[in-house]
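Lab notebook: predicted structure, single chain.

Context: the supervisor wants predicted structures on file for every construct in the current expression panel, including those that have not yet been purified. This is the next one on the list. No modifications to the sequence; it matches the entry in the shared construct table.
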Amino acid sequence: MSQMNRRRALQLLAALGTTGLVAGCGTDDSGAESGPELSPIKIGLMAPLTGNLKAIGQEIVNGFQLFLELNQARLGGHPTELLTADEGYTAKSGKAAVDELLKQGVLALTGVATSAVMLSIRDTVEQARVPLVGSNASPTSLQSVVYIWRTSYVLDEAGRALGRYLRQRLDPTERLAIIMPQGLTSEDVLRGFRQEFGESDPRIKDPVTWTKGASGAPDKRDYADKIRTALARKPAAVFCFYDGSAAVEFIKQLRNAGFRGAVYAPGFLTEGAVLESFKETPGDALGIQTALNYSADINNAANRLFASAYRKKHGSSPTTYAMASYDAAQVLDQAIRIAGDAPTPQQVNLALGKIGQIDSPRGVWQFNQPRTPQQKWYLREVQMDGQVLSNVLITELATLG
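Prediction complete. Output recorded below exactly as produced.
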């Protein structure tokens, strides 16, 4: 059995809870005794473990841990210890988290949920010469980096994918209201959207409605007034950008304001725990269409393995946050294997550039020159899957990156 086939067999057995039948064999593929144990390594993971983005942070942790569990807690054959640190949501808390992990001698870093944190730790990572395989935050202004890679996306791509789609979908007489929280991530998404939709298109001529940023948990006073201002212009549809608990509150307040038209957004609006908040009022979320680089119902072998194992362990469908973190572990596994028996952070970073196509739950992708994925983007719609609200894959939108 080839090494890749043996690893796939181990993964499948792990997903079924039967790894013990194989993992304890102690032999290589030829039946001979396996070689000496490789040295243990440490990987540092940063994610928001408290506050408004805690659910997203937990998904990031879950995805990386799942890959480790399916691979006998090893990356590149090395026994692997995963160290976690709370990035918070500010530049100061992010800097403290990365400093804490670097002091512990990690071979590589991963995670990072927010743009503010990613930008704040850029110079620290580059100066430390320790690779960071980020699995969420990816602002467009993060350029000319050597040690920072991302398995997620660049933030303007979600806007670009939807801009291209809505330019063709909206009636020439319809107007689109754009409502977003103030911040770097919104500006990236909006820039990409306008680029593809058309800056001068009369359908988006109304001013953008900016709401409070997402630094804390929102309440019913945060969006209601701004939503009324946007709806006073009688839009046929709304394009917005929220995630986590902010997404839940925004959708509720939009519906409470009486808007029953179409809602479009990057997929974070309806991702993960957000839909669980609408169990009692599913009509508020039904029909929302989003663009994302992943849908839990993608039909390929890698996603069947990943989604099945994730559902078995956590009792819920995986999100793009978990998937990108799982892929971060996957690319580190390959890079560390390429780097050899005694890898250094610098060798792992060089090896990351030698990885080709990644067989991912989202579909096959590869790193481009800016160290981000060249990948497909999908259109999803919130529908009822039995008694459960789900994001259902509708079509492919574009390949970006």
